[in-house]
Write a structure and sequence with these properties.
mainly alpha; 90 residues
Length: 90
């Protein structure tokens, strides 16, 4: 059993994996083409949002809640974290 499926109930395991994979592929596609002209601050905020989206979706699925709302809340928290991290690094 993989770590992802161990964190979620069997009923939600497939959905959580599908969400995580789709978000990861989307972020990878953006990373390959869209981030070359971004500032370091923008890159940190986007990275935080991407990581937060995946984490939030997994937590939402693990708790039996909505993976979509988990992803949205995770994205907001991750973007905020990326911004704070950027301000500390300056």
């Amino acid at each position: 059993m993989s770590r992802v499926t161990a964190l979620v109930s069997p009923r939600h395991a497939g959905k959580a994996v599908a969400v995580a994979l789709s978000v990861a592929l989307s972020v990878a596609a953006l990373g390959l083409g869209g981030c070359s002209n971004m500032t370091q601050s923008e890159q940190r905020i986007l990275s935080g949002a991407a990581i937060g989206t995946v984490g939030g979706a997994l937590v939402g699925a693990a708790t039996g809640g909505s993976t979509v709302w988990g992803g949205v809340i995770g994205a907001a928290a991750g973007a905020t974290g990326g911004y704070v991290y950027d301000q500390v690094k300056r």
